[in-house]
Amino acid sequence: MSFEPTIIGFLCNWCSYSGADKTGAARIRYPQTLRAVRVMCSGRVEPWLIVKALKDGADGVLICGCHPGDCHYLSGNCKAAARHALLLRVLKEFGIEKERCRLEWVSATEGERFAAVVTDMTEKIRALGPLVWPERAI
Ligand code: FES
Questions:
Q1: Nearest CA among 3, 27, 18 for reference residue 126
Q2: Which of 24, 28, 70, 87 could be stapled to 115 by a disulfide with Cβ–Cβ 3.0 to 4.6 Å?
Q3: Which positions ≥6 away from 89 have C-beta within 8 Å?
Q4: Whether the Cβ atoms of residue 84 and residue 123 lie closer than 8 Å to each other
Q5: In whole angstroms, what is the distance from residue 124 CA to residue 99 CA?
Q6: What's the pTM value of the predicted model, to 2 decimals?
Q7: Where would I find the H helices in the chain?
Q8: Ligand 1 pocket, 133 CB below 6 A?
Q9: pLDDT tens digit string along 73-127?
Q10: Residue 8: CA count within 13 A, CB half-sphere
Q11: Ligand 1 atom closest to Cα of 71?
């Protein structure tokens, strides 16, 4: 049996969650690997939440927010982008591949894009295999 990754998806309420909803409403198919967590803004996704998800068994974490300039809290997505860049550097120190922590902008009208992102991330993590949390990490 092939490996099916578990991906935790933090989706901002205003754009990305609606985009995911549109994917379902339009019956666009994508792998059932994503466990969606609705958050008010991508800027609310603190790095420790991502680390906890990976440590507790997720093979990858997807953070989705509004496109730059569209954040309903003005700069939440900019904060998310800055944190994401820093977190990737920390994860790399522990041998965790960048493909396992992905940040994407998905608007409420981009159902097809949402499906494409989840499909691509699933394929990349499938190729990497399950995440083995490094003992020396937090
Ligand atoms: S409200 Fe969507 S990223 Fe801030």
A1: 3
A2: 28
A3: none
A4: no
A5: 7
A6: 0.96
A7: 16-25, 47-55, 76-93, 111-128
A8: no
A9: 999 999 999 999 999 999 999 999 999 999 999 999 999 999 999 999 999 999 9
A10: 18
A11: 4
Q: How far apart are CA 44 and CA 47, in angstroms?
A: 9
Q: Is 42 in the pocket of ligand 1 (CB under 6 A)?
A: yes
Predicted local confidence at residue 135, as pLDDT = 78
* Residue 38 pLDDT exceeds 80: yes
Percent of the chain with pLDDT over 70: 97
Residue of 12, 18, 62 with the most ligand 1 atoms within 8 Å of its CB, for mutation:
12
Mention every residue, 6+ apart, whose C-beta is less than 8 A from residue 133. Answer: 54, 55
Cα of 4 from ligand 1 centre, angstroms: 29
The tokens for 7 are 């991906």
CA distance linking residue 41 with residue 126, whole number of Å? 28
Judge residue 49's burial from the number of C-beta atoms within 10 Å of its C-beta, 0-12 exposed, 13-18 middle, 19 or more buried. middle
pLDDT-based confidence at 2, cuts 50/70/90? confident
Rounded to an integer, what is the distance from CA 36 to the centroid of its chain?
A: 9
